[in-house]
Amino acid sequence: MAKIIGIDLGTTNSVVAVMEGGEPKVIANEE
Fold first, then answer.
1. How far apart are the C-alpha atoms of 27 and 7, rounded to whole Å?
2. Which of 6, 8, 21, 27 lies in disulfide reach of 15, CB 3.0 to 4.6 Å?
3. How far apart are CA 23 and CA 31, in angstroms?
């Protein structure tokens, strides 16, 4: 099964998420 990722490159904040088990999981930024 192919991996699906989503990337939001905002002007203030950027977020990356992946689909795991049919549910989106946001990858936390340590900054």
1. 10
2. 8
3. 24
